[in-house]
Design goal:
CATH architecture of the largest domain: Alpha-Beta Barrel
CATH class of the largest domain: Alpha Beta
Distance between the termini: 28 Å
Helix content: 25-40%
CATH topology of the largest domain: TIM Barrel
Number of strands: 16
Oligomer: single chain
Strand content: 15-25%
CATH superfamily of the largest domain: Glycosidases
Shape: globular
Number of helices: 10
Structural class: alpha/beta
Largest sheet: 9 strands, parallel
């Protein structure tokens, strides 16, 4: 049985006031899997998504565009399904590369616009992370340049969750209000509340998510421009912290359930499922192909299931947000796609 249907179902309500006339954005990042697998990954979601974002746009050492892995057949196939292809621009969490990109923004924006037009893409998603408050204005200017050059094509920006209104650190690099004015929509990365190296806790507890939504709206982001990012992974810790917040794809949670038969609880306050289990001497279990086997010990796994994801989608509809985004396809459990689309758009139930 899929972990997504193992705990009592969360009841999502229909609160959307604009859904009858506006189809919610349903955005899927494609990452961490071979590009040859992208189409099959999208096909198995049963028409859930109307936008996909492969990582075609990187940054070279001089701040110019690093154009990689363009798959024209994939682009054509997505268009035949009425799915927009909006590549992600990333510096791979490299502060120096990100700053080079911003310093070279005039050239970079022109290069991106040329690539978008050449390959019949539908826009760009700006996902530059690990910057700082001094980069805030330049990031807004890059976004404005892209929108100016791309015209009717879509420009979106991924921004940090900021439930506490931090102005320092990488959260301080985003001027949500200004970015919303120069882009088509803002993708709120409402995850990594707990992270690699942190104390055990949820990846995206509902209070963290709702406070992050409130912050963005209070900053002046129009609700129909705000898109809620949802994680398709969990994180795992053991009691001696030798494993400390390692990422666990949702499909791997099913394997853990079958192999270790963990004790399951559900936090109503956090709207997050939690699994606890022991690993013995001869388990030889690896979280992924490149990691060492889990050492002997007692583990706590915070993850996402039907109830927790439904609670986040309910926050989208309750706040009349523009839609949702997932990080990332390839980490998902196929059971998600039996309910996700209807939960995001309960009035229409279609995309």
């Amino acid at each position: 049985m899929s972990f997504l249907i193992g705990i009592g179902l969360f009841s999502f309500g229909s609160h959307r006031s604009f859904a009858q006339t506006q189809t919610p954005i349903s955005f899927a990042y494609l990452y961490g899997r071979p590009p040859s697998s992208f189409e099959a990954s999208i096909n198995r979601t049963n028409g859930t998504f109307n936008r996909v974002s492969p990582t075609y746009f990187g940054v070279n050492a001089d701040g110019s565009l690093d154009l990689t892995s363009i798959d024209t057949q994939f682009i054509n196939d997505m268009h035949q399904k009425s799915i927009k292809v909006i590549p992600r621009l990333t510096a791979d969490w490299n502060k120096k590369l990100g700053e080079k990109a911003l310093a070279n923004r005039e050239v970079l924006a022109a290069q991106i616009a040329k690539a978008v037009n050449k390959y019949h893409l539908d826009g760009v998603n700006v996902d530059l992370e690990d910057l700082g408050p001094s980069d805030k204005q330049a990031l807004t200017q890059l976004t404005a340049l892209l929108k100016q050059k791309l015209g009717k094509k879509e420009v979106s920006v991924a921004v940090a969750a900021n439930p506490a209104g931090w102005t320092a650190g990488w959260q301080g690099s985003y001027d949500d209000r200004a970015l919303a004015k120069v882009s088509d929509y803002i993708i709120l990365m409402a995850y990594d509340e707990s992270y690699a190296g942190s104390a055990p806790g949820p990846v995206a507890g509902l209070p963290f998510v709702t406070k992050s939504i409130d912050y963005a709206l209070n900053q002046g982001v129009p609700k129909d421009k705000l898109v809620l990012g949802i994680p398709l992974y969990g994180r795992i810790w053991n009691t001696d912290m030798s494993v400390s917040g390692s990422s666990v794809p949702l499909y791997e949670v099913n394997t853990i359930m079958a192999k270790f038969h963990p004790s399951l609880t559900y936090s109503q306050s956090q709207q997050t499922p939690v699994a606890t289990f022991a690993v013995g001497n001869n388990s030889h279990f690896r979280l992924n192909s490149w990691s060492d086997p889990l050492p002997v010990g007692v583990y706590t796994l915070y993850y996402e299931n039907h109830d927790s994801i439904s609670s986040k989608l309910n926050a989208v509809t309750a706040n009349d947000l523009g839609g949702s985004a997932v990080w990332s396809i390839g980490q998902d459990d196929p059971a998600l796609w039996t309910f996700y689309k209807a939960a995001l758009n309960p009035i229409q139930g279609i995309h």
